[in-house]
Amino acid sequence: MSQMLALVDCRHFYVSCERVFNASLQTRPCLVLSNNDGCIVALSDDARALGLKRGMPLFQCRELVERHGIQLFSSNYSLYQAVSDRVMRVLLPFARQMEPYSIDEAFLDVSHVAPDALLDYGRAIRATVLRQTGIPTSVSIAPTKTLCKIAHEIAKHSPEYRDVISLARLSEYELDRLLAKVAIEDVWGIGPRYTQRLRLQGIQTARDLKYADLSWVRRHLSVVGARTVLELHGQACIPLELQARPKKGIMHAKTFGKPAESLAQLEEAVATYTARAAEKLRRQDSLATCVHVFVRTNPFQHDLPQYANSISRRLLYPTAFTADVIAAALEALRLIYRPGYRYSKAGVFFSQIVPQSALQFDLFGDYTLSEHVRKIRLMCVIDLLNAWFGRDTVFFGSQGIAREWQMRRTMLSPRAVTSWEEIMVVYAD
Amino acid sequence: MTWSLDARLLVRRIDAGFPSPAEEWRELELNVHELLVPRPASTFFFCVSGSSMKGAGIHDGDLLIVDRMLTAQHNSIIIALLDGKATVKRLQLRAGAIALKAEHPDYPLIKVTPRMAFQIWGVATYVVHPLTHAPQPWSLHP
Which pairing describes strands A30-33 and B85-94: parallel, antiparallel, or unpaired? Predict the structure, then answer.
């Protein structure tokens, strides 16, 4: 049986999430803004029609926003993650196997469906997700991941295919005609560098790439490019990833809501970012061996003195114990901190990550098994409390309480499915 | 031994003293969420504001459980979006006409006309009505 995949993509996902919970938004253009309410990260179709684009800074479109009464939202990540989990849960029974590819996309293995039933199957997926979660999706069906992405690209620009598109039953000739309409830079896996190289060779469209000389592609675009070519031919080379691969590096870095000047403020931020990264580390059952800290001023404020620096520290033993990594990160921060600057961003990065099971104990050293168990138990309790009662129910003192540097989110919608205090109101009047 | 969240770690006793003869018969305790939320992906909670559904046992400040999966039928209690506002009413379907009925003598029947923006959002399945004066987390709404 040959493979058949369906790519399910939630349409302007963040905006759709906001619309599920706010009846008055269905007919109003909306924007969702990035961290610190800086740029547009998601927009509704009607907002796009007004000339707005993803990535535009808010200050550039203020006038348009006011003139058309466009509704603005800060990124409500707790809400989007919860809705995403619901969508994935609804998709699961439709697939033999499934790879959640991002917060708003998933690849489903639908090889079990008869070829002539695929379109109806796609429609059923879309209808069920919409019905249950309120989120509109588009479904793109094809034999390989790359072709699914191409189908999705085609569907975006042709209203008749917007909901469900299938390349499964097309003849080679029909498929090639469609591929000829897809620009090379819109092919999944082809970045700006490859685009340039391919264009120089006269390869302009997905169809050109499909029929390019494979050995040339392999030489110039490496094995990644060659896989893309084969996938365009319908040969599956990029398998579904069914298990999240443990990350080799874990990063937490954020721009401050307000610049920080004092060491105390930076310490709060770095401790908080370290605690978040350590949480991620524990979630994948890993330990970190090395911690890197960086700080920088805002490079776009030319009139202010500029400073940026980073530093690495080796931990005494691999760990995910928050107190230990915070201590190391703060020690590192104090070495690179210079007074007199307005810092706009800090970050923490863990590297040399090892699985928890790889930890070896030093028979005569300071770090014993019982010490390790004590720390695991403590972190389990802390993680549990924070999962049950909300983030930061308990935290380490060095993370601070004022946190004036924290991300600015002034137009946050309620967390309608994760907080009792913020559930929706229904009127009986 | 892992770092991952495991509630059992919190209550696991030290293996000292006498083992419980009932240990291997331990079952999961009843959980009301399972009963009220059989379909978590399509279930939502609402806080009720107003008294127009009192006759149906839905009071001001109650918690309403709503399932988007169910199909609304004649006499279903539904969450409707009416001109951009979420409202709870009993659905009346007669001879092709749609109306929304309140369960309180002071509130008139609303006839849905084609000019109204009307949409059925979900079907109410349960109502949680506190019988004490204890404050409820959801009723802290302004």
Answer: unpaired
CA dihedral of A337, A338, A339, A342, whole degrees rounded to 10: -80
Please report the sign of the dihedral spanned by the C-alpha atoms of residue A226, residue A147, residue A144, residue A136: positive
Test the B interface: residue of A353, A388, A426 with most B CBs within 10 Å:
A426
Radius of gyration of chain B (CA): 22
Residues 6+ apart with CB under 8 A from A46: A28, A29
Determine contact: B69 vs chain A, CB below 8 A: yes
Distance, CA of A214 to CA of A230 (rounded, Å): 9
Instruction: State which residue of chain B sits closest to A375, comparing Cα positions.
Output: B3
Give residue A94's Cα distance to chain centre: 23
Query: What's the domain range around A187?
Result: 172-232
In this structure, the answer to whether residues A211 and A185 fall within a common structural domain is: yes
Residue located via tokens 């469900």: A164
Does the beta carbon of B95 lie under 8 angstroms from any beta carbon of chain A? no
Burial of A40-71, coded b for 16+ CB within 10 Å and e otherwise, reads bbbbbeebeeeebeeebebeebeeebeeeebb
CATH number at residue A295: 3.30.1490.100
Reading the block at residue A231, the tokens are 């996938």
- pTM value > 0.80: yes
Instruction: State the smallest CA–CA distance between residue B38 and chain A in angstroms.
Output: 13
A412: DSSP letter = P
Do A293 and A321 belong to one domain? yes
Residue given tokens 């070519």 in the structure block: A229
Distance CA A26, CA B49 (A): 22
Whether B89 is a known active-site residue: answer: yes
At A364-411, the pLDDT tens digits run 666 777 888 888 899 999 999 998 888 888 999 889 888 888 877 888
* Residue A235: burial class (beta carbons within 10 Å; 0-12, 13-18, 19+): middle
Q: A350 - beta bridge partners?
A: A250, A291
| Helix ranges (DSSP H) in A233-321 | 263-283
- Two tokens, residue B20: 């419980």
Residue B87, token pair as written in the block: 């409202």
Q: Which of B46, B87, B88 sits opposite A423 (nearest CB)?
A: B46
Which ipTM was obtained for this model?
0.86
